[in-house]
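Margin note: ligand = PRP.
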Amino acid sequence: MEKTTMDQDILKILYTEEEIARRIREMGAQMYEDLKGKDPLFVSVLRGAFIFMADITRACPVKCDVEFIAVSSYGNTTSSSGAVQITHDIQQDISGRDLVVVEDILDSGNTLSFLKQYFLTKGAASVSICTLLDKPSRREKAIHADYVGFEVPDEFVVGYGLDYAQKYRNLPYIGVLKPEVYSGKE
Ligand code: PRP
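Resulting structure:
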């Protein structure tokens, strides 16, 4: 297939569509072993996790329900403001439930440390974290994920749900954006 205008903005591919699919199958099998006796509630953090959520829930064939929460912290820049706001909350009582929070990336940790505390305050029995990407070099909060797809270097990654200025989420692979695409816009 010829290079699309999105492909042309990519410096290099970090993980191909096939590599992502293979890793998610492994993660799903591991999560199934941990969750098969439970009645978990998977909570996807919009918008970045929307594609990963669809794939990881099908790779982990446990009887579960799904919810979506939307938070906002970054705006159209490449660095976090640190402040997390809920823009769409989950729709059901979570008291006593075992939650699995599904994220595309764990970066500074601001989003997930806020959400973990929020869900525990609302009465969740447990909150485990499943992230496709982990960027530990950028961590500001003491939080770790229970399930990690790939540990990534501190580069600006897009695709498979991850955006820059709301674009590139529908790339099937994960790539590093060319600096000239975002330089001067941070
Ligand atoms: C991204 C990502 C995580 C968060 C991780 O969301 O989806 O939710 O940042 O960063 P942190 O660990 O530094 O908090 P973003 O705010 O860009 O919104 P999006 O999901 O709509 O892309």
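The chain has four helices and nine strands.
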